[in-house]
Amino acid sequence: MGFREDFLWGGATAANQCEGGYNADGRGLANVDVIPHGPDRRAIITGKKKMLDFEEGYFYPAKEAIDMYHRYKEDIALFGEMGFKTYRLSIAWSRIFPNGDETEPNEAGLKFYEDLFKECHKHGIEPLVTITHFDCPIHLIKEYGGWRNRKLIDFYENLCQVIFRRYKGLVKYWLTFNEINMILHAPFLGAGLYFEEGEDEEQIKYQAAHHELVASAIATRIAHEVDPENKVGCMLAAGEYYPYSCRPEDVLKAQQSDRDNYFFIDVQVRGEYPAYGLKKLERNGIKIEMEENDLELLKNHTVDFISFSYYSSRVVSTDPEVNEKTSGNLFASVKNPYLKQSEWGWQIDPLGLRITMNSLYDRYQKPLFIVENGLGAIDTPDENGYVEDDYRIEYLKAHIEAMKDAVELDGVDLLGYTTWGCIDLVSASTGEMKKRYGFIYVDRDNEGNGTLKRTKKKSFNWYKKVIASNGEDLSN
């Protein structure tokens, strides 16, 4: 037995990395717009450097991105040609509520997504919608301090009320927050947080995460009330931690690192704060302010499935001599001597995907959905714009094989698989265009030059064949 008959094959993007049109049709400014390409990017993403508007001397790739705002019909037609069963995309909060705290939504923004979802259905594609993919209106950051402020729960609830009602019958798969654990590693990106001198950053991050968790539970409640057909998932930046050695100290450190990663997902899936998490907060002097019915909300409105991104496994060591680091999805890891790595230093570990899937399924016994997996690489097109990306095919093939083993041999319940950046887009971590993930090449460079012309890569027809055979034919 392979994948389920209704397996949801597809691809994934985020509004801020592909749409552009940052000020089109009444859209407001968001945190993701004002994160520039270049050396200051990481400091801004992590809340160490404050940037709440466009400044001279910087290039802001999200302003135009790949202009999907004006080209979505062409792009969705290409996804349809590949045979996508689903397309994961996100809503730009500031398209619907330009400031975030209005009572009435922006009709032009609502209409844009309605048209986009209808376009998906025209091609037999089920939208999978992330409500907030690193997206917070700038006004909410300037006026309220981002997710550190409990008032954001109400604004998010208002957004959910509007979109669940407007898109009833058009969307049934929803994710509340993208990679909710990223709030700990990239707080400005994840929650619109920046820090002033002397502030207790950990206290602020965990308080903001609590607000997001309550908001997620409220969103899940509303989704189920508005349409019992709705399925709501959480979203985790996943990747198993391996101990560097079999020293018990390394094994314990790996277990603790995994728990740090699962902390918020434990709340969203099990409905309560885990004992180890409460102990950690207590040890670190972090006191989360809660309102009376917060814990009840969390308990009664858990998610229907667990979605996650997987790019690589990670390694930890307690030995100070073992300190050679490698890059990863916005946070570094000890280098694994047994693995190759990508051009950006991300370790390539297909078996790690199966291990991660088993850990998640053993832990939660709820359906899984892989909503990001892919290889960021430098593509060199020929004179016709064609890219022979066998390296990408090999990467995806190995991961699909591991995913199939988790389903066939281990019994993991898997709903679907959407590769990250199915069309080339702006990288979240580096702001680059040259770090490409797509099956479709977009003519644009790191500085924003290029025609934006779309061209199918070799992997386009390969993935089309994979989908048509429901994952049985992976031959190159």
TrEMBL record:
A Pfam match: Glyco_hydro_1
Active site per UniProt: E372 (nucleophile)
Classification via InterPro entries: GH, GH_1_N_CS, Glyco_hydro_1, Glyco_hydro_1_AS
Biological process terms in GO annotation: carbohydrate catabolic process
Entry EC number(s): 3.2.1.86
Gene Ontology CC: cytosol
Organism domain of life: Bacteria
Keyword terms of this UniProt record: Glycosidase, Hydrolase
GO molecular function: 6-phospho-beta-glucosidase activity
Similarity-based family: Belongs to the glycosyl hydrolase 1 family.
NCBIfam families according to UniProt: PRK09589.1, PRK09593.1, PRK09852.1
UniProt cross-references to PANTHER family, sorted A to Z: 6-PHOSPHO-BETA-GLUCOSIDASE, GLYCOSYL HYDROLASE
Record protein name field: 6-phospho-beta-glucosidase
Species of provenance: Amphibacillus xylanus (strain ATCC 51415 / DSM 6626 / JCM 7361 / LMG 17667 / NBRC 15112 / Ep01)
